[in-house]
Amino acid sequence: MMTILVTGSSGHLGEALVRRLRAEGAAVRGLDIKPSAFTHLVGSITDHAVVERAMDGVAVVFHTATLHKPHVATHPPGDFVDTNVNGTLALLERAVANKVGAFVFTSTTSAFGAALTAGQDEAAWITEDVRPVPKNIYGVTKVAAEELCELYHRKRGLPVVVLRTSRFFPEDDDDPAKRAAYALANMQAMELLYRRVDIADVVDAHLLASARAQAIGFDRFIVSATTPFKRGEARVLRHHLPNAIAAHYPDAATLFEARGWRMLQGIDRVYDNARARELLGWKPKHDFAHALQQLHAGGDFRSEMAIAVGVKGYHDTTFDEGPYPVDAPH
Question: For the whole model, what pTM was predicted?
Answer without folding.
Answer: 0.93
